[in-house]
Design brief:
single chain, alpha+beta, Jelly Rolls, 6-stranded antiparallel sheet, 3-stranded antiparallel sheet, 9 helices, about 20% strand, globular, binds 2-oxoglutaric acid, binds fe (ii) ion, TauD/TfdA-like domain-containing protein
C-alpha cells in the first residue's frame, strides 16, 4: 500500500488546491497490484455470497482482515485526511474521530438502482479507491460531480434544511433528468483502479454513473471529518448510512 507518511505539507497543499480548482485530486497508484489483487479477492468472495447483486459494507469492523479495512485503519492515511479537513474547515478534527469506510459493489439490476443518487456527504473529505471498474460499454460507473457548489455550513440546522431540499427523491430525479438531457453539466471522472481520488464530499453534489448490469463496479469509500459531529440534531437527522447500518457516530458497532 502507498506510504502515506511520504505525503508532506507541500503535497497536501497541492492536493487541496486540486480539489478546490478541479473538483478532485488524484494520488496515482495508491494501491499496488498486490493490494488490488487482495481487494478484488475479497470482492469476489463477498459477491458470490450475495448472488452477484448490489451490496455495501459499512464500517471498519465489518471489513476487518481486508485491504479495505487496513486502509481505513491506517494512522498515516487518517493524518492526510485530517490535514485536508483542517484546510477546508479551518479547524482540527476531533482527536477520536475515525475514518468511516464503506465498500460498494454495483452489479446486476440492483446495481442500476444504486446509481445517479446525487448527494452531499456528511463528512468534509472523501477518498475513493476504485478496485473494479468496467472498461467496456457506454456507462462505466464514472464519478459524476458538481464540485464545490456549497461551503461548509457553520450551523448544523442550515445543513439539515439544505439537505432536506436537495436530498429528497424528487430533487434527485430532477437533477438526474437535467444531466441526462444535457441541461446541467457536471464533471465526469473516469476511475482507474489503483488510483485514489480525493474530493470535498460535503461541498460537492455527486453520485456514480450506472454501469451495465452484467458488469461489476467495486469501490472503497473513505469518509472523514464531520463538521457537525457535536450537534445532537445532526446526529438525529443525518448520517443515515451509519444509522441504517446500526453503527454509532464513529462508525462502530454500539457496545451492548
Ligand atoms: O461509489 C462511488 O463512486 C460514490 C459513492 C458515494 O459517493 C458515497 O457512498 O458517498
Ligand atoms: Fe458520497
Amino acid at each position: 500500500m502507498f506510504d502515506f507518511k511520504t505525503v508532506d505539507a507541500q503535497v497536501v497543499c497541492r492536493l487541496a488546491s486540486d480539489m478546490d480548482k478541479n473538483g478532485y485530486a488524484v494520488l496515482p497508484n495508491a494501491l499496488s497490484p498486490e493490494d488490488l489483487q487482495s481487494a478484488r479477492h475479497y470482492i469476489n468472495d463477498q459477491a458470490s455470497l450475495r448472488d452477484n447483486e448490489y451490496f455495501a459494507v459499512h464500517g471498519i469492523e465489518a471489513m476487518e482482515d481486508s485491504l479495505f479495512g487496513s486502509l481505513g485503519a491506517s494512522p498515516a492515511f487518517r493524518q492526510l485526511l485530517a490535514e485536508l479537513y483542517e484546510i477546508v474547515t479551518g479547524e482540527a478534527p476531533a482527536i477520536d474521530e475515525r475514518i468511516f469506510p464503506v465498500i460498494r459493489c454495483l452489479e446486476g439490476q440492483t446495481g442500476l438502482k444504486e446509481s445517479h443518487f446525487y448527494h452531499f456527504d456528511a463528512t468534509a473529505v472523501t477518498a475513493l479507491a476504485p478496485v473494479v471498474i468496467p472498461v467496456e460499454g457506454e456507462h462505466c460507473g464514472d464519478l459524476i460531480m458538481f464540485p464545490n457548489i456549497r461551503n461548509i455550513r457553520s450551523s448544523a440546522i442550515y445543513n439539515i434544511v439544505e439537505k432536506a431540499i436537495l436530498h429528497n427523491s424528487m430533487s434527485k430525479k430532477i437533477c438526474a433528468f437535467g444531466v441526462r438531457r444535457g441541461w446541467l453539466h457536471p464533471i465526469r471522472i473516469k476511475l482507474v483502479p489503483g488510483n485514489l481520488y480525493l474530493f470535498w464530499g460535503y461541498r460537492s453534489l455527486h453520485c456514480n454513473d450506472q454501469c451495465d448490469p452484467t458488469m461489476r463496479r467495486a469501490t472503497g469509500l473513505y469518509h472523514f471529518g464531520n463538521p457537525h459531529r457535536e450537534s445532537i440534531l445532526a446526529r438525529k437527522f443525518l448520517g443515515s448510512n451509519k444509522r441504517k447500518a446500526k453503527l454509532d457516530e464513529n462508525g462502530l458497532r454500539p457496545v451492548v
